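Quick illustration, no need to memorize.
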Amino acid sequence: MKIKFYAHASFRLEGDGVAVVTDPYTPGPDVSNFDPIQEPADLVIMSSATDRFHSDPSHVLGNPVVVNAVEVVSQAGKGANQITVKGVPIQAFPSMESLTWEYGRDPEDNAMYLFELEGIRFLHIGDIGNALSEEQLAALAGQVDVMFALAGGNATIALDDLDAAIQAIRPRVIIPMHYFHPKGRLKILPVTEFIDRYPAEMVTFVKGSELEFTPSTLPAAQHIYVLEQSR
């Protein structure tokens, strides 16, 4: 299982013969200022279809199937909030942009999504702007191996609430995302604001943008891996 960090909340995961890209941003100076992905994927999963920092698959090559997790949530009213695409099971959980941040508009729907590749369960918490509900925490507790965690605060989940979610869900690996980068345009917190809340021995700064895991090589104790941005 290979994990690669592109930028912001976008990762590439390769396993079971499938390449998955999460929450692709809109590239270029007019929006994110990050470089295009320009690599192929079989599947793109997005936490919404309305946020240009999380929902632009146009620069992902290979004609991937695109899944909007908000639409998967909408199926819950029909008796399911889980689908399987390209052999990848995807379960979505409803969330919202921040209910207290001033957007100049109403906050929009968003979704977290849990998916599995090569026996490893990944949780991407999308662009959630509030604490997870008790119902969500109960559903996710013990069900996540790797969490992609919003670490930039401000318009997304507060770090105190993120800590509480990590404690309740108990992922074995936490990979921070959506934090300040000099190349980016958002005024959000640097990753140090998040990792300084944890013991130094619990944090590894990966010298590069990629990690590899198998179910047997996941750390026994909870650990944070900080990847370098590649775009």
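The mean pLDDT is 94.
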